[in-house]
Amino acid sequence: MRPYTGPADLRLMQELVQRTWSHRSQWHIGDLAWQRFQHLGREPEWPTALWERDGRVVAWGWLHAPGSLSLLVDPEAPELVAEVLAWADPSEVEVLDGAEHVITGLVAGGFHRVDAPSFQYLARSLVELPAAVAPPGFTLAPVGDVAARVACHRSVWHPSRVTEDSYRQVMAAWPYRAELDWTAVAADGTVAAQCLIWPDEVNRVGELEPVGTVARYRRLGLGRAVCLAALHALRDTGAVEAVVYPITDEAKAFYRDLGFRGYAETRTYRKSSGEQGGPERE
Q1: Distance CA 213, CA 191 (A)
Q2: At what angle do helices 164-171 and 29-37 cross, to 10 degrees?
Q3: If residue 33 lies in a helix (H) or strand (E), which one and from where to where?
Q4: Which of the following CATH numbers is that of domain 2-120+265-271: 3.40.630.30, 3.90.1150.10, 1.20.1440.230, 3.30.870.10?
Q5: Which of 4, 26, 142, 199 is 20 to 30 A (C-alpha) from 10?
Q6: DSSP state for residue 26 in the 8-state scheme
Q7: pLDDT tens digits, residue range 198-252?
Q8: Could you report the per-residue pLDDT of 136-173, keeping only the tens digit for each?
Q9: What is the pTM of this model?
Q10: CATH class of the domain whose range is 128-239
């Protein structure tokens, strides 16, 4: 085990994600890029470690305060689940229901499942996509004005720590591609809605993250239009499938209307009372 040292290690973490990706996987390579780079100055908040064998990463753990752990363990090395848990000493872990080797390790480590909001994992084929039609007065296009794109994001997720500088960091990260970062632009230049898709060219699957429409422009069909435009662009790269991970009922219904269907969901496990091995991390 060794500590995370910077962006080069994130690529190694992404390589494990890409190598093991399936509908039983919790992570997409785009998840890691977006979560790590959307904000500036947060590295000290995120203790992260990598486990390597034969020159490649076979497990990683990423702690989010207070005591919440994200992890990925190669299914061919299930014994490393216990090592990641021992390193992190988390109080809570969210895991995909299909990651049986991780769930087995959690239960063996004294964790139990609890009721908690769950992310639903949805997918759709890129065959027979509906046309992307912009409502009157709006234009669909890949990202142009970065400041306007960031203003849209900050409005949708207010209050947000995303800034122009942090978004340019996202744009510089692998596997970001500007032609998959779509916007719906009003006549005055305001970005009213946006959809970013992260491509995985090896597995030919793209992840939608993030997607949003500014409040005053909702109920006009902009979210549907901008997502379909981005999905068409994704298909043009050779991808065959798109995935998205909503948590709210409204978002789940939105994506189902776009033709996405569920294939998995997250479960939350917490350390049983009296099992916590050390102080909570802050």
Answers
A1: 9
A2: 150
A3: helix 29-37
A4: 3.40.630.30
A5: 142
A6: S
A7: 999 999 999 999 999 999 999 999 999 999 999 999 999 999 999 999 999 999 9
A8: 999 999 999 999 999 999 999 999 999 999 999 999 99
A9: 0.94
A10: alpha beta
